[in-house]
Each structure stands twice: as structure tokens, then as C-alpha cells.
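Form 7-S
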Amino acid sequence: MGRAVSSLRDNPRFRLLWASNLFFFGGVWTQTLVLGWLIYETTHSDFLVAVFTAVRLAPMLLGPYSGVFADRHDRVRLLIVASAWPLVAVSVIASLISLDLAPYWALIVAGGVIGIAESPSRPARSSLVLDLVGRGNLSNANALNAMAMSVTQVIGPAIGGLLISWLGAAAALWISTAWYAISLSTLLPLRGSHQLVRRPTGSATRMMRSGLHAIVRNRLARTVLLITLAANIFLWPIFQGFMPVFAKDSLGLDAAGLGWLLTCSGVGGLLGSLCIAFLGDFRFKGGLFVLGTITWAGLWAGFALSHDVVVSFVLMGMIGLTGSAFGVLQITLTLMTTEPEIHGRALGLLEFAIGIMPISALVLGVFAERFGVDRTTFVSALALVLVMSVLAVRTLDLVRYSGRQDHLR
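Output:
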């Protein structure tokens, strides 16, 4: 067990960042569940849930510029702002909900607030890990970061679902908003931890273009980016936006049941991340990334066909387990296959690929409204399996990639 948590045990600065991530994403997960449930309960519309998801995820499209900021500015300061902003803004939304003054559009605004806090800060949050732990411990540290997110998936939805049932949506929002204050307090001692690799010059747009050109010329990093893009076109919008529909219509669950369904995914993700953390600087990181993503897509196809509560809970746990290979290693491989001075921009492009979700969520919402969310998910899962198989065959270097030596080509 000591080997699995070596970055936390041996690096106090990474320990602070890890704690900040834990509470920050705990607030994000809880609030996303609460707001999504409120919208579906009041509108009973798959499409309007998809609109909320699109607004919630739209700030990801700022990824390229967010990556430039991560390369140009102090990353810790950026994260401090990212924690302080939702602490204030979501408190206002929670007050409106408490006073019954929050119409549908206010819930949409709340989703945008959460997205603005979370998505643009991700390149700085992820690249700061390498600054704190170094290349040799990067897989372990990223796995531990993924564990923190999985823990929030376990605790956040479960608490959110229970609080909706016991105290109402407003109380759930207030509690999760307070978690941002804890996240902020753990970041303050990290001030001064980030040193720029090279003093940036030129405009933000010029820096963004140079980073894009470097990624396009890099075959391994380019393939990781394409895999991330495909996963966020076909399946991540399902998980982010349509789980309330699966819970209520396919499985007959209430808000607490939805929370426990998402908790199963979080438990699986936690176990998967723990396994990757234990492996440390292991061989064939690329192979695990590709195989794990294909398996993850296949399990989603099975989940789409299931209408049995127990089977669906088991499948969701397995989805979390296999999905951890995708979630942990997409960041690890992006950092390992690119030059240090463009790490922020590389992760910003990764965030932009994730940012396709708002558009995809709207398209999938239209199909789900017409054909049902289960059929839509099944077809999307099979499409991802096909795309992944083609990319794996075309880029066997990624499947064999270990990350133990520089492969910046």
C-alpha cells in the first residue's frame, strides 16, 4: 500500500494539491448531480437536460487559451482564483434556490458557473502535478489525483442524492459550496511552487498556434488527443448528462438511487486508479490506455441494454474500473510525449477535445428524445469501439509506449 501512495507520503506539496482537488471536485460532482436532478424533475425533458449539460461543459472549449495561461502565468494563482470564484458565485445561486426564485434559466446559469470554475483550470491543475513530483513519479501522482476524483464520485453523488431526499436541493448546494473554501485554504501554502520553464513571449494567440503545431507534428500525442476526442463525442456526454434519465426511466430509481448508481462508478474508478498507482512507472502505459478505453466502451454497450438494477450497478462499477485507464493515462501520456515548455498548451488542447461534449450532448439529446437513451448509448458505444480499433492499428507505437524514455516525435 505504501508504494501506491508514495507521492502523497513523500511529497508534502503534492499532498496539499491532492487535498485541494478532493474538495474542489467534491463540490463539482455534488452540484452537477443536484442541478441535473432538479432540471429533469421539473421539465421531464431529455433535451433540456442535454442543454444543461452543454452549458455546464461549454467552458472546456476555452481549453487552448487556458493552456496558454498555464504556460504564461503562475499555476497556483490560477487555481486559487478557480476555487474562489465558485465559492462566491454558486452561493448566490443557492440563495435563489433557497428562496424559490430560481427558474430553469437560473439552473442553466449555475451549470455555467460550475463549468467556468472547473474546466479552464484543468491544464494548470494537471501540469502542476509534474512540477511538484517529477517525471518518474508522474504515473503514480496522476493515479492518486484520479483516485481523489473517484472518491468525489463516490461521496459527492451519494451525499447529494441523500441530501436532496432529506433536506432538499438548496441544502445540498450550500454544503458542496462550502467545500470550495477548504480547497482554497489548501492551495495557499503552495504559492511560489511553480517556476516557468521558459519565459513566454508573444501574444496568447501566437503561443496557442505554436502549441497546436507541436502537437500535430507529434504522432503519439496526436493520437492520444484523437482518442480523447472520440471518447468525448460518443460516451462521456452520456455519463455527464443522461444518468438521471437512466435512473428514473430505465431503472425506476429515485434521487438517492441515482446517487448510489454514480457511487458504483466512483468505487470502480477508485479501485482502478489505486491499481495504476501501485504499478508506478510501469511498462506499456500506452497499451493499457488503449485496451482500457476499448473495454470501457464495450461495458457501456452492456449497460445500455440492461434494465435490471443489480446488473446495472455492477456494470457501472466495471465502467468506473476500466475508465480509470482512460482518465489517468490520457494526462500522463500527454505530459510524457510533449516538451515541458508546452505542457500547459498540450493539456489545454486535451481540454478542448473534452470540450466537444457540449455539442455532442445536444446531438445525443436529440437522438435520445427520438429513439431513447438506451438505444442511443448502445450505438455510441459500438461506434467508439470501432474508432478505437482503427486508431490502435494505425498507431502501434502508442500501444507499445512505456514512457520510460523520451519519445517526443
